[in-house]
Each structure stands twice: as structure tokens, then as C-alpha cells.
Amino acid sequence: MDSSSAGAAPPQTMDEVERLVQRLYQPGNPRVITQINDQLQRLQHSSEGWQIADALLNSQDANVRFFAALTFTVKLNNDGSMLDAETAQSVQSRLISWFVRLVSRGESALVTRKLCSTLTTYYLRSPVHWKRPLLHAALSLQSRDAASEPDPDASVNMANICKSLSMPQVVSLLWFAGTLADEVGRMENNTPAHARRHAQMEVIVEDASSLLRHAFSPVADEAGARLRAEALRCYITWVNYGQPVWPQKPDCLEYLRQLIPSAVQCLLDPELQRDALDSFRDILESYTTFFREEHMEVLASIISEHVQPVLLQALQDKDPEGLPYGQMVIAFGDANIQQVAEQPENINGSSTILKLLFDILRAPGYPGDEDELSIFSIEFWNTYIEYVNDMLFSKDADGADPPWFGYSRVVLSQLVELLWAKMSTPPADVAKQWTDAESDGFKEFRLDTTDLMLSIYVFLGKDMLQQLLVLTLRSLESRQWRAVEAGMFCLNKLADNVLEDQPSEDLLAMLFSSSLFRDVADFSQRIPLQARRTAIDLLGSYGRYIEHHAEYLPDTVRFLFASLETGPLTNAAAKSVASLCSTCRASLTGELDGFTQQYQRFLNGPTNEPYTKEKVIGAIAAIIQAIQPHSAKVQPLLALIQYVENDVQAAKDFTRAGDQEMAELMGVNALECLGSIGKGMQVPEDVPISIYDDDEPHVSKANFWDGDEGRMVQQRIIGCFSVLQVLGSSGEAIEAACQVLRSGFAETEPGPFVLPPAVTVSFLQQCAVNTPQLEAVLSTACILITQHSKSDSKRIGPDATAVCQQAASFIKQLGTPRNDPGVAASCIDVLCRLLPYYTAVLFDESSPLAPSLQTILDFSTQAIEGQDPFPKRSALDFWTRLIKPPTAPVQEQVLNRMRQVVTAYGPQLALALMRQVVGLAQRSDLDYVCEPLKALITHQPVTKAWLEAALLSDSLPPVSAAVGEREKYRFLQQIVGLRGDSRKTKEVVKEFYAACRGTVVSYGS
């Protein structure tokens, strides 16, 4: 559309509109259609719009007639409900008249369908109640002009009228009927007018069913086939309408159910079969209860006699045309799952369905490529096993199994083998031809299938495991590596379940005592890479089993370390090495020297990458942790630390050479490796701690790491932090350093990574308010204080003071929480951790923090008033802890100081809390706001006066007009009367919050 047309005055007459449409219309160009509609806006809203639109329908141009019908629709949507009865009746008459006239002269489908939509809009929007629109339209078509609307009580037979109509006329009625069901179905039943329209559909369905019965009548010609096709589409639309609207209206649904035998005949028509399959599949999937038992029997017979041969041939030929036939089988089985499971001997039903579903999985092709049906079939099998398992768990523990369980075991055993076979990966030459979508489809099938197998394992248990092991080992004997890989893939996914089931675990010796891991470790053999990768994953998953069967460790570990040197396997191997060595550490101590040598060789090889270095060095550290006595750990541990020190020095060298990118890469990885060593050196949670001393007569576990050798190891560890001098601006480096410190916090007794608290304090003190990842450093300091707040831990008053001083310094520099919400929240979290064991750090008047106390308190109060949720929640937690009486002994002068603070800040805090409650808070913050509120009410007698003054303050934000002083006093009485009851206080606060924001109809009624 040119610019002159876009700016021109909208047309005012029929001639102008017709010329405009003829000049501008371009078929298939939605932008031009939108522009024409814009030009027609004034016409569609003008008083002359009805007459001009009516006149436009007489145009010789089909495009103009289309826009005329569209104009009627727009006018009805905008003005239909405001028409007086006489005008509404006139519009109805003109629309019916044009409908009859255009259909009679062979109007195009585009215009006729649009006019059907216009008639439906009239039905929905007109103030005049149109009782039987379908029958009225049919009578009008019969009389060749707009007929009088039939009397509701008149015995007018829709079926007889249809017999006198031509095929195009019946088709147009089907379009009208389908549009009615579709458009009314979109309309909510939430107003009297809408409810009346839905109620009227209960009458209209009788006319629609008569129309459909006529249209489904068998006529052996091309016109009859087209009529049945349109009838089928209309029928499905009505069924979809009835599903949500008439669940309690069996009489209405009966009109549609009676048509099932007629509609089913479309499944036998070669011209209609595919559309009919899609239609009935849709009903089976979304509205199973629509079909009665006799209907299901008919469908089962059709599947057996007509669908089955077509599907089997399509599967054999890899013909995609078989897809709707297979989907019909799957949907039918899903909809009749009880019969399929419990009556497997039913020849026309269950046995046919199960056979076809097995045939789908037996068919050639790979899921995601030319085989789509296998992917769809998984949904049925999920339903099947879910039903079987439900029956398994619903029966009494000592009760007899249902008689059909035996057959289900046979079915599921066959299914496991078919799924295993279908999961085999394609040869490389096939996979290379796949698109990303095809590759993703195959991967998704494998994942969905293993999820299904987990459910099957619940029912079959060790029998299924044994079956998979036999299939895998049989394939191993014949060197069918893709089948071996599929078996390992399944076993890998079942690991958690198998390892929790002792009878199943005992079967694993079949696999681990085989030649599998010796074979895959022999890289001279031509074995698919995927098979080796899956074998690596398998070892990571079954580490707990190997831990108790040390005889299998040499083969498995040798294979994993060999895989480290194979590029595509490196990451997977590193992950499994870490998992296996951590789990089996005690059984691998004798292999430590060999592992260290292999690590050195790995570092000099091409697969040495940051991730793999970190994983493998942590794996070796886990073995070192298992060595006894402690003194024996020193030298191998120092050897690992030496690798880290080498990387630290390399980072410094790169910095001097001006290559900061490489310096950061080496430095960050050095700290990540150090953190991985620290994690590996942690005592496993499931390892009992011996109460006896080590073999060394004078050095116990409790103090070895405080001795000269232990301190020397720790100094070497601490020395690695010097890399931060050249990487201070790297957030990744700071985060990695925090992980090193945290690795020692998890320990319950001294160890090489249980560093003195001063190390963490010094690390924090070297940070500035703009240091990257400062939140991580502050969080690490919080964990330090928490660890030393336990009842049996050593108190670190001076270190806690130093941490708090640094946090206070950051608070002063920030000025307000909104300048950096993340750092603000972390600083307040530090303050929270001081209570109750380090209360004196804040509130002793001789504390170095005393001059900063007011700044800290003001900052935390500002955080409550702020918009950022994390500082707000941290501050609310801080004040809750401060208000409540300490749970640990506190000096009297400190306790008095705390009371003074609460008394001094009480009115300010009460106002801040009430400002949140009346609307400033997010609803998700209200539970946090309630905590200090409850604490005040419970522990501060003057709280009621504080809250009353706050609720009447001019500083409160505006609230809904429905909340006045009376409502505020009512709220105050409620929360004070609850005396800190947690659940009820939250309910009252949320109700008042909603009232203040005007999101409830009334409050206090």
C-alpha cells in the first residue's frame, strides 16, 4: 500500500470501498489486508455501515464480498449488543438472505465461510434471541430466501429439510454448524448472556445431529465423499465443544454419541481414512469417556481388519504414510489400558494392539530418523506400566497377584528386549547424515526409554536386570558393540535402583567379571567411541558396587586412566575417575604411586585441560585421604600441591610476560585444582572415625595437623593464594579461592585444609567494596563464624570482630543498600551470624565496632524499606534475632545495650514494618516481615503503642479507601491478640495487605 493510500480519507460509499479493495487487495498479503481494514474503520463504526456492508455483498468481486462479510462481523462485535430489536431483526434477515443467495450461486468457500462466521457473531452478539439458527438457515436455503424464524414448538423436521437441499447447501450448513460449535466453545460461561447462548446450544445440537446424520449418509460418488469429509470435521468440532460443557448433560451428548456408528464409516473410506484416523485419535486421546464399550468394540474390529494390514505394510516399507495408522493403534491402546492389561486374550482388542505395538518396535529404522512411531509408542508403554504398578502397590502385601500379572511379565520382558534393540546407535555413516533434529530425536527416545525402563524395573526387578545382563554379554561375545552399548546405557540408568536391591546387585558379577572392561581398555580394538564413553559412565554409576568388590578395580581403573588420554573420552573419564576413586578410596591406596605417575603422564599429554586436571587431581587426593597414619599422607599430598604451585608460578610468569589471558587461565585452574584436592581430602560422611590414636605413639589425630609437618603442609596450601596478587580482578579466581577455604569448613576434626580462621579473615580484609565476587567472600566468612558457633567448637572472638569490622567498612562505603544489593545483603548476613555467640562484638561498648553500631543499625533499617528483596530479607532476619532474647549466655552490660537499641529503634522499626504490610512489600516478602513483627509483639510490651502510632502515621503510603482507621485498629487488635502465633499472624497480615492494596472485595465484614 502506498503512502498516499495510507493517509487518504476512509471511504464513505459502497463505490469508494469497492474501488479501494479492488485497487489494494493482494491475495495472501496480511499486511495489505490490515491496511484495508484500517481504511474501513470509519465505515465499520459509522451509522451507514450496515447499509454499505449489505450493498458490498452484491459486488462482482469476491474480495469485496469477503470484506463485506468481515465488515458485518466487526460491526456486530462493536455494536451488536446495542441494536434495538427491529434493527437486529433486519440485520438477521439480511445476513440470512445473503447466505442463501451466495450459496445458491456457488460462492467461493472463502466468502461463504466468512459469512458463516458473521452469522455466528450475530448469534453471540445480537440482543435478539436466535433460538434455532441452523434450522432457520436450512429453511431459508430450502425456500431460496430468508424464511421466517421457525416457532420453537413447530414440528419442523431438520432431516426432511436436508433431503431437499443440494450438496453445496448442506456443506454450507456444516460450515455454519462447525463455526457455531467452535466460536461458542471459546466463550466463557461467566455472564447471563453467555450462559444463555450455551444453554441454547443444548437445543441446537438436535438440529446439528440431524444435519450430520444426513451428511454421513453413504453416497458412492465424489460429492458424497466431500460431504462426509466436511461432516467429519463438523462432528469433531461438536464433540470438542461438548467435552468441557456437557459433562453433566448426558442427553445432549447422546445426540453426538448416536452418530458414532455413522462417523466410524469414514474410517473405511480410502479417501477419508487418514483424516478419520486423526479425528478419532484426537477423541481417544482427549475424550476417552465419550466412547461406550460397544463403540470401542467397533473401533477394535476396524483396527484389526482395516488398520492392521496397512500399518504392517507401511512398517515393512518404512513408509511414513503409515504414521496415522500407528498413532491410532497407540491412542486406542492408551484409551483401553485396563482391558489391554487385564484381558490379553481378547483377540480383536488387547492381543491385536499388543502385537501391533511390538511390531512398531520391531520395524526397521532409527527413532528420530525414519521411525517416528517408536517414539510415539513410548507414551502407551508408560501408561501400561503405570497401570500395572498401580495394581501392584494397591494390592495387599500378602495378597495373591491378579491372574493377569503373569502375562504382563511376559509382555514387559518382550518389551525390554525390543527397547534394548531399538536403542542401538546407528553406524557412523548413518549418523553423519542426520540433521540436528533427527539426532536430538534419537537421544530423546533413548532418555524416554530409560525412564520407562526404570518403571518396568519396579515390576520385574532382578529378572529384568538379569535379562539386560544376558543380552549385553551375549552381544559382547559376538562383538556387536552397538548392542553392548545399548545394554550398558540401560544398566547405567538403572544403577540407583539396582544398588538399593541386594538380590539385583548380586547379579552384577556377571558383567564385572566378564572381559568387558579389559576389552574396552584395549585401544587397539576397533570399538565405537560411544561404547567406550558409555562404559566410562557405567563405572561412575556403579562405584558403590566396585567399592565392595575390589577384585574388579584394576581393570576398571586401568580403563579409565587409559581413556583420559583419548580426546573425546577425556571429560567423561575424568568424571568417572573422580567418582570411582572417591567411592573406592580405601581399596586404591596401594595404587597411589601408579596413579600419580599416570597423572604426570596425563599432564604432559594433549588431553590436559582444566576440567580434567581438576577432576583427576581431586580423585588422587581422595585416595590420599584414605591412607593411614596421617603422617603417611604428607608426601603424596605435597606432591599434588607441587602441581598446583607449578601452575601458580606459570600464572605469575605469564603476567610478567604480559599475557594476562593465559595468566588468568592458569591461575584460576590452579585454585580450582587446589579446591578439588581439599574436597578429596574431606573425610567421607559414611566413614566411621576411629577413637584410637594413629600408629605414631606421640602424635594423635587431634593434633597432627597442628604439628610441624601439618603446619608445613598448610603453609604450602596458603602459599598458593599468592596467585591472587596477579589475578585480583578475576571473579573466577576469587570464587575458586573461596571453594578452597570452604573445603576445610566441612570437616569435623583437624585436617590439612582446616586452615586457621585468620586465613579467611585476611582474605576478606584484602577485598574492597568493588571486588568481584565479594558476596562469595562474605558468604565464606559467614560460614566460618557459623562453624565456630557450634556448641563444641572453639570461639573465635577476635576473628569474628575483624570480619564484622570489614563488613561495617563496606556498609559505610555503600551508604545505602540499593547501591549494591548483593553486597549489602551479604554484609547484613555477617551481622546475623554474630548472634548469639558473638553478640559482644556488636554491643559491647568497648568493642571496636561500637562507633559503627548506629551506622550498621540505620543501614539495616534502610534495607527493610528498600525494594531489593535480598537485603530486605537479611535485615528482617537480623532484627528478628536482635529482638528475641539471646539463646546463649550474654554479659549483663551487653544485654542491657541490646535492650536499649531495641527500645530506641522500636518506633522506627514498627513504622518500617507497617509500611511494608500496608503495601510496599512484595507479597512473597510478607512471611519474612512477619518474623520481626511477631518478635516485637512477643517480647516488647510497648509494641502495641509503636504499631498504633505507625498505622496512624502520615508516613504510611496511600492505601485502599476501604481501609480506614476502624480497619487499622481491627488489624492491630488481631495481631497483638495473637501473641506471636506464627500461622495465624501470617494469615492476618496477608489479609490486611490485600485489603490495603485493594485486591479483596471487602475487609473486616
UniProtKB/TrEMBL annotation:
Protein name: Uncharacterized protein
Keyword Hydrolase recorded: no
Biological classification of the source: Eukaryota, Fungi, Dikarya, Ascomycota, Pezizomycotina
Keyword Mitochondrion included in the entry's annotation: no
Annotated GO biological process: protein import into nucleus
UniProt keyword list: Nucleus, Protein transport, Transport
Subcellular location: Nucleus
Family membership: Belongs to the importin beta family.
InterPro entries in UniProt: ARM-like, ARM-type_fold, Importin_beta-like_NTR, TPR_TNPO3_IPO13_3rd
An example Gene Ontology CC term for this record: cytoplasm
Pfam family, one: TPR_TNPO3_IPO13_3rd
Chief location of this protein within or outside the cell: nucleus
